Amino acid sequence: MDATQLKDVQAPLKKRYAEDADSALVTLRASGELDGSGVACKVQTSTALVEAGLHPATGGDGTQLCSGDMLLEALVACAGVTLRAVATSLGLDVEGAVRAEGDLDFRGTLGVDKQAPVGFRDIRLTFDLRTSADEEQVALLMKLTERYCVVLQTIAGNPGIDVSVTRG
């Protein structure tokens, strides 16, 4: 997809969202099954059923997906797609790789130390880019990528979360 094709695809969406702000609000959903077989949760993705379980640092055997890894994978995916969309829109030829890594203190999640945080303490997102773009263009590319990456902005923004339970 080139810049013209991307703009052609997005133009009617942008117009509709500008004219009707409510139409821009889309609720994304995810669900999982707790089937009682082990310490796991089966999550339906758009293409497969995956099973998440304990990370080896919390007693898992490493055969199941770790939700912390999945969070970093979602960040990499979103940042990569966003960068490619921004690069396409700017007419920049960019290739390379995206990596994320995060530091967890598992004393927190295992309840060993009540002062240890539960969750990532630090996350690093790295782009290894191959491009003929100059420094100013790369700076703009990165500024816009950070601004429009949904997962990055969600993690950085600390959104409100409502947790509820129903019983059936």
Keywords:
168 residues, alpha+beta, three-stranded antiparallel sheet, 5 helices, 40% helix, 21% strand, globular
Summarize the structure.
With 168 residues, this protein is of the alpha+beta class. 40% of the residues lie in helices and 21% in strands. A 3-stranded antiparallel sheet has the order 1-2-3, with no helix packed on it.
How many angstroms separate the termini? 47 Å
| H-E order | HEEEHEHEHH
Structural class: alpha+beta
Uncertain runs are none
How many helices?
5
3D shape: globular
Rg over CA atoms = 20 Å
Average pLDDT, all residues: 95
Percentage of residues assigned to helices: 25-40%
How much of the sequence lies in strands comes to: 15-25%
Number-wise, the strands total 5
